[in-house]
């Protein structure tokens, strides 16, 4: 039977010449998903792990993930940051169950194999056997070397308090991976100031992980989907904006400036609203204070492919960590933070504005839902495709929001790495 | 004020080896190193293992669980994963018996 007429294609290939139409099967195929883990999460890319501020003291650790693989971010007794895989080198147990804590070493509960905080194997129970009635029973073979059986150690890069890691020790330097354009927006938030973690949010979204990257590469939707934004005048399609990508189009910055001069009054007033009569019960949600480090833009959403979104929406800053667990599901972990030099009022302001985000956020709750609804359709008719032609079919940077260029850029890169070229 | 307790016959401690004894509710390891006797707490300061199940080499006892090594003469922790020394006890031999001072 002709593949072109099947709902479930037998031999799916991306035949289109450009990236303006994404086949539904790109979100549903288990084999493709595993290939994505292989090529994006486990090779050639840096994945977000956490913030140095989450492990301030020697012995502090926090569990994180690279793709589906559980890893541990840990500060060792020398003060160095390490990332090791949470898989015992003996029988594969995912031994670390706590989300965070402080310890002198790691111990697998199954056979009590013991590792130092750099991931080196320190001790193996009964390595030399067990003494009984004057003889020694069992033990590891004489050629067993603890040096050969440490935990898998990831390559680590720390930039201004943000920790990235890669299973691929040949990965290019983090700065080259980000490229000069995205690096500028990274350093805009993380300029070396100390960070203070305010709290976490976690949600499991029943959709393909790429949809989350797309969501933050899509300036077309916020003023339309997020009625909270439009009701309270926080997003308009005619905000002064820029969309920028790295040379390979995998990362992006969505930069927007509200009002005309960035003044508070203009930021929160004088904008069209569908429901002008509505008012916030707690006006502190709109207590926005411009900060010098913004350098103009009131919001910059930075997507770092494949695993991270850096959020600056006025005074709310957070890391959003994408942790896939199957082709149709991912965990989304939000780390809200503040800066060490913030005064108490600013910390409070950041916390209150954080109510817009997370699984129940006034704005972000919408994103989780539409991602789920997209995935439902993708599963039903994988032969079909999405349409990404707003603003054209190219993958150029833009100086406005009415375009899907960043998503097209991401799929141009995806096709290149996945070998899905026409 | 030491309280000397008779804990074992001298010949119950084999040459260049270790045994465990219970003294006043405590778990104690007795070592013979080239005819000289030493005593420490039996329980490792790291994992849950007894020194008397470990391997004595010269004056170093290696824990059977994670291969931490202590000097039996002063209880000093010699390597990772150990971070804490073993407690030692004064020992003397009198009349073919081993005596230990606790508190």
Q: Topology, pairings included?
A:
The complex is a heterodimer of chains A (422) and B (103).
Chain A: H1 30-41, E1 47-51, E2 60-66, E3 69-75, E4 81-85, E5 100-102, E6 106-107, E7 114-115, E8 121-123, E9 130-132, E10 135-137, E11 155-159, E12 162-166, H2 174-189, E13 195-205, H3 210-216, H4 222-225, H5 227-231, E14 240-245, E15 252-257, H6 264-268, E16 299-304, E17 308-313, E18 316-324, E19 330-339, H7 344-353, H8 364-380, H9 405-418
Antiparallel strand pairs in A: 1-12, 2-3, 2-5, 3-4, 6-7, 7-8, 9-10, 11-12, 13-19, 14-15, 15-16, 16-17, 17-18, 18-19
Chain B: E1 3-9, E2 18-23, E3 26-33, E4 36-41, E5 55-57, E6 60-62, E7 69-71, E8 88-89, E9 91-94, E10 97-102
Antiparallel strand pairs in B: 1-10, 2-3, 3-4, 4-8, 5-6, 6-7, 9-10
Please give a structural write-up.
The complex is a heterodimer of chains A (422) and B (103). Helices cover 21% and strands 25% of the residues of chain A. Chain A is built from nine helices and 19 strands. Chain A has helices spanning 30-41, 174-189, 210-216, 222-225, 227-231, 264-268, 344-353, 364-380, 405-418, and strands at 47-51, 60-66, 69-75, 81-85, 100-102, 106-107, 114-115, 121-123, 130-132, 135-137, 155-159, 162-166, 195-205, 240-245, 252-257, 299-304, 308-313, 316-324, 330-339. In chain A, a hairpin with a 2-residue loop joins strand 2 (60-66) and strand 3 (69-75). By secondary structure, chain B is an all-beta fold. Chain B has a single domain, classed as Rieske [2Fe-2S] iron-sulphur domain (Rieske Iron-sulfur Protein), CATH 2.102.10. In chain B, a hairpin with a 2-residue loop joins strand 5 and strand 6 (60-62). The chains are: A alpha+beta (422), B mainly beta (103). The interface between A and B is medium-sized, with 16 and 15 residues.
